[in-house]
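Observation: inputs received (chain + adenosine-3',5'-cyclic-monophosphate).
Thought: call the complex predictor directly.
Action: predict_structure
Action Input:
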Amino acid sequence: MERTLSIIKPDGVSRGLIGEVIKRFEANDIKIIAMKMVHLTLDDARKFYAVHKERPFFASLTDFMTSGPIVPMILEGENVIEKNRTLMGATNYKEAAEGTIRRDFATDIEKNVVHGSDSHETAAVEIGFFFNQFEMNER
Ligand code: CMP
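Observation:
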């Protein structure tokens, strides 16, 4: 079983898309094993997106990610890293496949509703960023 981190971003939360996103995960045999709602500080957002710190969109991205609460979740399932990325669709919603979360709901390349880890290594780091061992509901 694999795990990944998903985040419903501030645009998804403020537009009432939490249920819609979760429904798509559950309908695709993805199990949510941890979930919370948090409002990041700018310092938190800069740490989380540190890999993008040299990119021209870094300041705007970190401002956006601190503009309201977000919902981080740990997803579990077979091949869930790839599966989640398929359900989300491409970062740029204009290039995202039909029926994906971003194609259906994103409004620009930044306000793209969801984030998902892109590899095993990133998933481990990103899960550890938001959740401690007591919150992982290990059975
Ligand atoms: P995410 O998957 O969370 O990873 C980095 C985020 O930066 C991305 O989704 C977008 O929300 C945001 N972003 C803004 N502009 C760009 C861009 N030109 N290329 C990639 N990501 C961008």
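Thought: report the result.
Final Answer: The longest strand covers residues 2-8. The domain at 2-39+71-135 is CATH 3.30.70.141 (Alpha-Beta Plaits).
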